[in-house]
Amino acid sequence: MAGEEKPKKWFESVNLRGYAQARYNRLFETNSQLKCKQCDRSWGDNGGFFMRRIRLIFSGQISQRVYFYIQPDFASNASSTSLHFGQIRDAYFDLGLDKENTFRVRVGQSKVPFGFENMQSSQNRLPLDRADALNSAVSNERDMGAFFYWAPAAQRKLFADLVRDGLKGSGDYGIVGFGLYNGQTANRPEANNNRHKVIRLTWPFQSGDQIIETSIQAYSGKYTFSKDQLSTGVKANPQLTYIDQRAAASFILYPKPLGIQAEYNIGRGPQFDKLSDSVSTMPLSGGYVTLSHFNKLSKGKILIPFTRYHFYDGGKKHELDARSYSVRELEIGFEWQPVKQFELVLMYTISARRFEDYIKQENLQKGRLLRVQAQINF
């Protein structure tokens, strides 16, 4: 029939976007031994200019009920001397269970729904790295699994708007989310017969001109070490398998113009114990508070000053010997967006980090440094 619109072919629904981040961390540095392996490996001694991320994102709603998302990163490090390898970060599809896709099942490697800042894209986050307290739960924030998400259409639109309008949203992970995942973290095979279980409940709502989001979340499972994650001589249980459990609460006041982002978690998991030279199941706790102020200037320019204080006492299961940490860190900075496609972040860090394993004990490092990041969005 004349004028009848032809249905789209699947490849006409595929989108490509991405971003890249370049950093330098050593301005006004006072201690070259102050480092953060999980944060940014170019901190400290022998660090220099560094590509933190080079991401391409392929995505598309290829039919009414099927959505796919694939995100490789080309700034992965195979070792301390080999940089810029390609590696999958996300590779999943969503299957809608109703016409509006308010009920969805996600299968593949994707972010585990635990912690607002963990789910918030690095493209949108203000501080240069995620806080140790919640990010220590899931290295690279991702794992292989299957997750169920539910959110009414109005809330799904709100989640999208918070990202689109530059208000530093986390994206759409449902009002209710739960699922099963391997629990060995991203790009690692399963190592035991126990699946991790996770559940998250969140509710965004409007109060006058402000938008507030509150969440609770928890996960439970068992984590198994590979032999290359343990030093020769460190003691561990025969199965190399440990309880891994956490619960967290989140409060977000989106920046209109004042923003508050706060999270706190408690739990237990593997941690190096220097009193017994062993990896043991031990308690952990920590959180952060981020304050920001969103300023729209003339000609579309945006300036967002921010500060964050974060703290953590516990282990990091994905590091050598489940390295033991005690972190107290204050960051003060700003994000400057002269155009939509470019962002510049300057952040002054005042840090005290104790990070200890079987080889390196009594290791408390204190220092200050100015960190710089340039980001291109396309």
Task: Walk me through what this model shows.
The protein has three helices and 17 strands. It is mainly β and 378 residues long. It has a 16-stranded antiparallel beta barrel with strand order 1-2-3-4-5-6-7-8-9-10-11-12-14-15-16-17. It starts with 14 loop residues before the first strand and ends with a strand. The model has no long low-confidence stretch (mean pLDDT 94).
Keywords:
single chain, 378 residues, mainly beta, Porin, 16-stranded antiparallel barrel, 3 helices, 17 strands, 55% strand
The CATH superfamily name is Porin
Q: How many strands, which pairing sense, and closed or not: the largest β-sheet?
A: 16 strands, antiparallel, barrel
Summed up, the domain count is 1
Summed up, the helix count is 3
Summarize the helix and strand pattern as letters.
EEEEEHHEHEEEEEEEEEEE
Number of strands: 17
Work out the helicity level. Answer: under 10%
CATH class: Mainly Beta
Pick out the low-confidence regions: none
The secondary structure category is: mainly beta
Rg value: 21 Å
Determine the strand fraction and express it as a percent band: over 45%
| First and last CA, distance | 39 Å
List the helices and strands and how they pair.
Layout: E1 15-27, E2 50-63, E3 66-76, E4 85-96, E5 103-111, H1 116-119, H2 132-135, E6 142-150, H3 153-164, E7 176-181, E8 196-207, E9 210-224, E10 241-253, E11 258-273, E12 278-293, E13 295-296, E14 302-315, E15 324-339, E16 342-356, E17 364-377
Antiparallel strand pairs: 1-2, 1-17, 2-3, 3-4, 4-5, 5-6, 6-7, 7-8, 8-9, 9-10, 10-11, 11-12, 12-14, 13-14, 14-15, 15-16, 16-17
